[in-house]
Amino acid sequence: MKLKDMPSFIKTTDPNDILLNFMGNEAQNCLKASTIIFNTFHDLEHEVLDAISSIFPRNIYTIGALSMILGRDLPESQLKSTRSSLWKEDSKCL
Question: Angle at Cα 10 formed by Cα 5 and Cα 13, nearest 5°?
């Protein structure tokens, strides 16, 4: 991966960065799991999901879009404050 492809909260060139190492360890832990859940849906990212399942044969489930599932039982006024992430949303790409 190129540095520009990394999420903004772990863009670093320091190989000892604590968040980079944490995320790397968590990615490695996924390889040990019997099941992986992705916050997407198959029709959107089927090529990537199929590639993952061909390399790592395990149960793969898609439950996306999680942000829409979380807000479906809330009144319209509360939907703006409901998010599936604690990170600030980058509105420049929308």
Answer: 85
CA 57/CA 92 separation, integer angstroms: 36
Strand, helix or coil at 49? helix
Q: How far apart are CA 59 and CA 49, in angstroms?
A: 11
Confidence of residue 85 (pLDDT cuts 50, 70, 90): low
Q: Say how far apart CA 64 and CA 66 lie, in whole Å.
A: 5
- And the tokens for 51? 């590639």
Report whether 35 contacts 58 (CB < 8 A): yes
The answer on pLDDT for 26 being more than 80 is: yes
Is residue 41 over pLDDT 80?
yes
Mean pLDDT of the 67-92 span: 60
User: Can you say whether residue 93 is alpha, beta or left, with left for phi > 0 and alpha for psi between -120 and 50 degrees?
Assistant: alpha
